Amino acid sequence: MYTLNAKTSNVQLELLSLIFFRLLEVVQSLKDILRASEDEKYAGEGLPFPTEDNIQEPDALISARFHRLLPIFVLPDHRRAVAGSLKWLAEQAKMDVSFPLYELDYLFQQLVLTAPYDAPTRMTQGAAEAHLSRDVYLYLPSISCKYVIADFA
């Protein structure tokens, strides 16, 4: 954190002010983008959170309810970095918001299992994560469309 003292110039104060307001805009933009519309459910909406045994409700869940925030989907390996970055942005902007993070591999697994076309009937969450994090330029006939297959035939 930058500390102000008697030798801080007006230019430095103006620059710090600009940085602060830009961070504020970034966090506000994130909140606006992630705000659920009336026909969408925000993160955790309608799901009971167990409050017995003095378990404290997570800040992200409280924030999602208060701001009607949709979740951000991330891979488990990137969760800590994304959470830390978002927390840092919110702290620097002096905004009381915590963004809900959900697992992207779980979402992908559920989408594949409910897809209306031929797909593996049992895809584990680990297989989904491996599928999402593999080399994106590795084309396999089982996942390619007819145009890609025709190009490589």
> What is the count of distinct domains?
1
Query: Structural class, judged by helices and strands?
Result: mainly alpha
Please give the order of strands in the largest beta sheet.
1-2
List low-pLDDT spans. none
Contiguous helical run count: 6
Strand count: 2
Distance between the termini: 58 Å
Work out the oligomeric state of the chains in this entry: single chain
Helix content: 40-55%
Mean pLDDT: 81
Strand content: under 5%
Please tell me what the overall shape is.
extended
User: What is the chain-wise order of helices and strands?
Assistant: HHEHEHHH
Main beta sheet = 2 strands, parallel
Gyration radius (Cα, Å) is: 22 Å
What report would you give on this structure?
This protein has one domain (1-153). The chain contains six helices and two strands. It has helices at residues 10-34, 59-67, 79-92, 104-114, 125-133, 146-152; strands spanning 72-74, 101-103. The protein has a two-stranded parallel ribbon. Strand 1 (72-74), helix 3 and strand 2 (101-103) form a beta-alpha-beta unit. Helix 4 crosses helix 5. The protein is extended and about 65 Å long.
